[in-house]
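Handout for the seminar on molecular recognition.
Each group receives one record of this type.
Step one: identify the two inputs.
Step two: read the structure output and locate the region that could contact DOR.
Step three: write two sentences on what you found, then compare them with the reference statements printed after the record.
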Amino acid sequence: MTRILIKGGRVIDPANNTDEVKDILIEDGKIVAGHGSRVTGQEVIEAKGKWVLPGLIDMHAHLRDPGRPDKETIASGSRAAALGGFTTVCCMANTNPPVDNPAVVEYVVAKAAREAVVNVRPIAAVTKGLKGEELAEMGRCRAEGAVAFSDDGQPVMRADLMRRALEYAKQFAVPIISHCEDSNLSADGVMNEGALSTEIGLPGVSHLAEEIMVARDIMLARQFGLVHLAHISTAGAVRLVRQAKVEGVPVTCETCPHYFSLTEAAVKEYDTNAKVNPPLRSAGDVTAVVQGLKDGTIDVIATDHAPHTLEEKTIEFSLAKSGLVGLETALALVITKLIIPNVLSPAQAVEKLAAAPARILNLAGKGSLRPGSDADLIVVDPHAEWTVDAAKFASKGRNTPFSGWTLKGRVLQTIVGGKIVVRDGKLVA
Ligand code: DOR
């Protein structure tokens, strides 16, 4: 029997209503009740002054596997996740081929079992080829292990298909994750539409492209069942979700660290690493996103980790790919931008980074440190300061707008199913 004792840390476990200094004992891959005095001769991790948290769960990452091993693989992406404190990563379906049939779901599950150092769970496509024309084989994808359905990267423009997808997803008790973008409205836009886009001469994307789809999906959810809205970025979207929740509509949503850490000003010098979809928004939108996190309108913080190659990013702004890497900076951005300024308590942050994703995706045994849970957990030094250096990422993606930023909060240990995969901030070989 393998036992690990994590001693004297501040255990922050909102799903179990816990925020106190105590020991955590792991036996054979599970958290067990009881005290450290029972264990001898086992691995002991001293966690005094540190936070002990349930492993973070990223419900929105692009691992590019199958199809683009030059951008990322399940192996490299899962190592980036482990270093960032994520013990479960749900990977999006816009791969090549897309995850729109049971064979590709099976490929992801099998490859993850062989090569990943954290739990990797596939999200399958809503429509075949992410084309928005015909539903994918949702039932069979679910049976192979898909934890949600999403065409992320592309909207499901047809309301009739979205409706049918919701009806199916309800039967399987898994959510549809909606990429909210009216692609007719967003058209050729490459940044947020406003004074700045006019000033620097780039075509803009109106906030309405997001909000119209948020409104549509709320209306569909009211009648047909749960929708989870991906990467919410505008004040209007936050307002719509807040009102929908008051009315009892089954809707949940996420935002990403870049939408509370950066405004559109980050693209002023045509920095393609700040080009992302939806685009970085105005200061007013950022304030609204922060307020939405604070008042609980926004349930989840996800990364939208989207690695691209140097070639795809070192070209003119309008041609560059959208997306930025996030797995290795997300927790430190949450600590630096939300916890230290008292927007969120540590427990509220853990709720959005672990407990809520586990609940929304029905991930049994995840998102909490209560006895009987899987021993997926992290030890974090919330005071450790470090400077973001993309060259040091385990991700193959170097496309971050946070290079050179000094952040607080470092993951010291990452334990997945009782196995130490990050020790003293470094991947275990
Ligand atoms: O910026 C983005 N990149 N937004 C998305 O929705 C998709 C993602 C990607 O796959 O690169």
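Reference statements: The first strand starts at residue 3 and ends at 13. The mean pLDDT is 97.
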